[in-house]
Design brief:
It is a single chain. This protein is of the alpha/beta class. The chain folds into two domains: 71 residues, Arc Repressor Mutant, subunit A, CATH 1.10.10; 131 residues, Beta Polymerase, domain 2. 41% of the residues lie in helices and 15% in strands. The protein has nine helices and eight strands. Helix 8 runs antiparallel to helix 9. It comes from Natrinema pellirubrum (strain DSM 15624 / CIP 106293 / JCM 10476 / NCIMB 786 / 157). This is Helix-turn-helix domain-containing protein.
Amino acid sequence: MMEYVDETAAKIMVAAQPGDSIRRIAQKIDGSYSWVYDWIERLEDAGFIRREDGVYIEKYAVRDRYYDLVAAISRAVPPSIDDGYVIPHFAGMPFAYTKIDGVYVWTHGGYQIARGHDDYPIFIQVADQDVERWTAFFDEFGIPSRIEERPDATDYDATVSYVLFPRSGDITREWVDGNPVIPLDEAIEHMLEYRVNYEPALEMIADEYDRDIDASHEDPRLNA
């Protein structure tokens, strides 16, 4: 029994959504494919999950206990920045990384701005109807969250916080490195709106995704 009290097992059970591939789950929880594959086989043998054109939870009572355990640990030990990109997958609601994090994901973590190791807000787009559930979810995990505004770092001790951007209708998202993110065109639109801050990122995007963007490291204000 106690062999199933494991970090990877807990993350798999809490993060898995019906029909997820093993690779998608591994990316969600930032785990190696081989290790997650091994654990999924063990969880399937125990009858906790099944594989049938994807992964499905069989024992939701077990899943709920894993969820309670992970939430209790999060309240006791503030999540790391890496944990911050895993935890939203536990909510069971659609979301997409947006704003600063839309750029961060599309550049594969290659462009970072306006955050530090002691103050790290994560920006996610959520459905209007889910806002209260998201707020309750983060409260349960002991993590600060705000709607459309960055939490004041002096108000809390945790490194990670979340900024929620409600959107009416369905969340349109793409998957990059296992992360749900706003469409590339929306990310580029955000970068162009704040071009001075994102010029290097625009150049990275133009090169990787073959987009016709006039981007360079020059500060456009110097030619004004």
